[in-house]
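Question (not urgent): is this output format expected?
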Amino acid sequence: MTYKEQIKHPLWQMKRLEIMQRDGFKCTICGCDDKQLHVHHLYYLPNTLIWEYDDEALKTVCEEHHEQLTKDLSKLAGLIAFEILKKRFDIL
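Got this back:
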């Protein structure tokens, strides 16, 4: 099943609504409630349908922040991982 097909699937639509309800129908970054909202996956796992993720892996965000997260998250994760490994191995 393609990602586009998954987005239209009733199980994703139900999960998406549950997450938005949990988050009070507000962006969990800026708190806005008057912009289009999306449910963002903090990570993706192979062979996992988009509605099979634990709730804590899903966050309600406005369209603007979703775009920023999608674009910048992998870069940010790499920088954080580098700093953690640097401290762990005492690399200067």
